[in-house]
Amino acid sequence: MELNHTHDASRRSWLDSANAAGCDFPLQNLPLSVFRRKGSTEAWRGGVAIGDQIVDLGALQSLPGLQDSAAEAVRAAAAPTLNGLLELGPESWRALRHGLYGLLQSGSSLARQVREALVPQLDAEHAVPVRIGDYTDFYTSLDHAVNCCRQFGIEVNPNFDWLPIAYHGRVSSIDVSGQQVYRPAGQYRTDPSSAPVYGPCQRLDYELEVGAVIGIGNARGTPIPLANAQQHIFGLCLLNDWSARDIQTWEMQPLGPFLAKNFATTLSPWIVTLEALLPYRTGWTRAPERPQPLDYLRSADNAAAGAFDIQLEVSILSARRQAQGRPPHKLTRTSFQHQYWTLGQMIAHHTVGGCNLQPGDLLGSGTVSGPNPWEAGALIELTVSGTHPADIGDGEQRGFLKDGDTVVFRGWCEREDYARIGFGVNYATVLPAPGPP
Amino acid sequence: MELNHTHDASRRSWLDSANAAGCDFPLQNLPLSVFRRKGSTEAWRGGVAIGDQIVDLGALQSLPGLQDSAAEAVRAAAAPTLNGLLELGPESWRALRHGLYGLLQSGSSLARQVREALVPQLDAEHAVPVRIGDYTDFYTSLDHAVNCCRQFGIEVNPNFDWLPIAYHGRVSSIDVSGQQVYRPAGQYRTDPSSAPVYGPCQRLDYELEVGAVIGIGNARGTPIPLANAQQHIFGLCLLNDWSARDIQTWEMQPLGPFLAKNFATTLSPWIVTLEALLPYRTGWTRAPERPQPLDYLRSADNAAAGAFDIQLEVSILSARRQAQGRPPHKLTRTSFQHQYWTLGQMIAHHTVGGCNLQPGDLLGSGTVSGPNPWEAGALIELTVSGTHPADIGDGEQRGFLKDGDTVVFRGWCEREDYARIGFGVNYATVLPAPGPP
């Protein structure tokens, strides 16, 4: 994939809101979601964000003036999940982007007809945009690993230097921004020598992650080489990997986290396509004191590694602050470019043993944390396991999350000479734990 | 659920092969699969095993003489997956069993018509019978845990006594008996102080497990109490959790097994329903030196715990032995009743934090090993990490699996005064690792 006219920052849309400074969804972005009008029983269908509107791909199906391949892609994306579009492959995704770009840019002869296919974002509700076959969560930020291990007085495990560590996550509890997350109950120990107790999690946390949606998979037994890995990614979103730290500490030996993670995962509704993100690719740089990885995790073409400079921000809105009509309080600001292992390396590793990926599979990057204290992507790091509570505004503090807290993620890319593009918002609210079974 | 006339061992079928001694599929069993005629392009549809035949539920749809609820269940099960049947719930599963029982028993007035809906099992091929949303693999055999930990000179982790440990597994690489399993390649260390190398797995193993198919799920945030857990199970099958021990040892800290497991999982084609298994329920007995579990893992009604006495057997057929036309060599013989945690406890624990199960979800029991040396459900135990190779007949030995080896699982239940019912066969063959990516 190469930069092309759809990345030209000077182009504008006929829709004014798309040209506003700081807008997440200018002409150069065109991310996809699945939506319907709020509170309606309409069919879920694909939509594309532009300014403060959504292009309803269901309504756009009947529009003449799209080339064959773009029209086919629109039809595939007008379904209740985007899997049909994913299966069509990169050429179709590209045709869809370029076709919509033509329809939405200033001077389009079809602007009037396209305007009839717009739905205001404020009037829409979203569903998880793809039917996810498998969800894999990685652990690829060295800063996150170092921050966490320091708290337990241990070194980062030696395999971190050699492979992007990962585990399989839970699909059934993945939902989209706006999710109401029940505080999980479970087993934990209040001190390491006692018997466990059952009760609501006392150390509820978020994890700031980037999600990658697989567009095209591979056959079982046929690994994806690093050089081709990015062609298999449809796009990226923001992902909150909710974590119950007390449950996690007690349960995770020897087979990894289970109930500590599987109660909820929240996705942003919009998937920003890899083509839109091309201006924000960065090279992969190995920390000089770390070993050279094995061949299948190395690429002569550094851009093929699949690293991206995505600005990320975490805020918290307490119930009290929300009742006062105040905005969320910013806690963290970092970039995805700090990640030690890249998306390309994650895919190459995931498939090297013959495991097959499928269209719609979801990869989580693992917590994104940067080298500075204000770049910690989880409360366990930011508050040193709750011992140094963070100020969340108006005199409130948090070691871990309280019921009623809303966690808000934002992400965007900006770079001189290119249009700023955003991921929109990923927010979700903590509900009290239900009673015992 | 209670024992009823469908468990009466004295009843016979009009199909002679169903009444033969040692048959896995008598009138009292009636397990379900999804099948089509071998090598055909027919639609996949549900089928029920009887003797050496399959009742084609697609063909049976048009038969008059089934009660409404049974007819509805047959229609739902005539689809390419059994999920529609699962969603109908326990009353429908029961109606299907009782309806088919009536059609297949001696003296049925519809025997001639049903005979027209039979397909010989030898002429059929099978698909994974359900669309699996999530796959969870447990670790619930204390004997397995002790055997494995002893090899590393460590104690079983203290949480084993308190909860059924589990991790999420990979759905995309689950296939049905007959699967060709590529030996995975990946990273491992040849000695613990060296850097890892990349290459084909040198310590390929199987794990003998029982799989449970979830029939009815639960809402997010609504745990399933132990007393109700069994109502959520549709049925059981045999499951081979293929494991690459060298890759596993290197990768599994801190987040659990990943590439060591996600290249393949093999299921037996037949799902034996929970109703068929009722005569084989056993109570849960806590080892006296182990602690009393927390309330949500205890039940006043011991039968509700969900323990089953299922006889299990592992055999290996080497390529050489196969070429000579010889049968598989028996390695292991054990019972599922030795498992420390039961299926009911697995479900109660899985959902206690609010995680939602869905129809078609798959649970693996974890390796089933019994207290005696010949009851080890994996080669790592049976051969003490390959240091004491097992005799597999004709002078061949195995520490771990070689290319061309076929691993064969069988399972059945037998008890005085009840009909023997079987699970059929779960077999799969190891192929050489593909070249590097």
Describe this structure in words.
The structure is a homodimer of 437-residue chains. Chain A is globular. Chain A folds into two domains: 123 residues, SH3 type barrels (Roll); 297 residues, Fumarylacetoacetate hydrolase, domain 2, CATH 3.90.850. Chain A contains eleven helices and 26 strands. In chain A, helix 2 crosses helix 4. The longest helix of chain A is centred in the first third of the chain and has 15 residues. The first copy, chain A, is 18% helix and 26% strand. Chain A is an alpha+beta fold. In chain A, strands 6, 7, 8, 13, 14, 16, 17 and 22 form an eight-stranded mixed beta sheet that branches. A five-stranded antiparallel beta sheet of chain A has the order 4-3-2-1-5. Chain A has a five-stranded mixed beta sheet with strand order 9-26-25-20-21. The mean pLDDT of chain A is 95. The interface between A and B is large, with 71 and 72 residues.
Largest interface: A-B, 71 and 72 residues
Largest sheet of chain A: 8 strands, mixed
Strand content of chain A: 25-35%
CATH architecture type of the largest domain in chain A: Alpha-Beta Complex
- Structural class, from helix and strand content of chain A? alpha+beta
What top-tier CATH class of the largest domain in chain A fits best? Answer: Alpha Beta
Give the helix proportion of chain A (percent range).
10-25%
Rg measurement of chain A, Å? 22 Å
Identify the overall geometry of chain A: globular
How would you name the oligomeric state of the polypeptide chains in this document? homodimer
Q: Give the N-terminus to C-terminus distance of chain A in angstroms.
A: 52 Å
How many DSSP-defined strands of chain A? Answer: 26
